[in-house]
Write a structure and sequence with these properties.
35% of the residues lie in helices and 27% in strands. It is of the alpha+beta class. Helix 1 packs across helix 3. The longest helix is centred in the first third of the chain and has 21 residues.
Length: 180
């Protein structure tokens, strides 16, 4: 394939390795909401919507299970289908529903979420509901401000006390795509 032709995007997702073991559901919820908002922002920038939500997590290192069965990192994953969306809160709600089903209350180290089964956002059926029109205007304004002044300049109130997600290069492999 020539370098000037881009492949069609098949999924949009993010994952985050937490710097410490987390078993607090509120901290996990905040991290998942941030990841969902980042995904939604990328979907809107590419003018796409998706309907298949996939979530996975990796449990913290457990010495007992490692010695017993040789399992270093255990985890689980699952996916669900929702109506086509590009909204971060809708993606989060679907992802959190999955997480509550598969999480065994153990400490986790990594969580990830992705949206697949994508289609172009336009053409779409227009909604004449006042709330839908207002949400679109607010989302467009939020994206414009966050594009200009940096990610999460404006964010949901629940994320004000959350820790910042830091992008770091993989120290073991030379990640050429990583940009600060």
């Amino acid at each position: 394939m020539p370098f000037f032709e881009k492949e069609e995007v098949k999924s949009v997702g993010h994952r985050h390795t937490i710097s410490h073991d987390v078993s607090d559901s509120e901290e996990i919820k905040q991290t998942l909401l941030k990841l969902s908002e980042m995904i939604a922002r990328r979907l809107r920038a590419k003018k796409l919507e998706g309907k298949t939500i996939s979530l996975w997590y990796r449990a913290a290192f457990n010495l007992a299970s490692h010695l017993k069965g040789g399992i270093v990192f255990d985890g689980a994953s699952m996916q669900t289908t929702i109506p086509y969306t590009g909204d971060g809160l809708t993606i989060f709600k679907a992802g959190w529903g999955i997480f509550e089903k598969i999480w065994g209350k153990e400490a986790i180290r990594m969580i990830g979420i992705s949206v697949s089964n994508l289609k172009p956002a336009t053409p779409a059926t227009l909604s004449f509901l006042h709330e839908d029109q207002r949400r679109k205007v607010i989302t467009k304004a939020l994206d414009k401000i966050n594009d200009r002044y940096g990610e999460f300049t404006l964010q949901r109130g629940i994320l004000l006390t959350s820790t910042k997600l830091k992008r770091m290069p993989n120290p073991f492999l030379s990640d050429r795509r990583f940009k600060i």
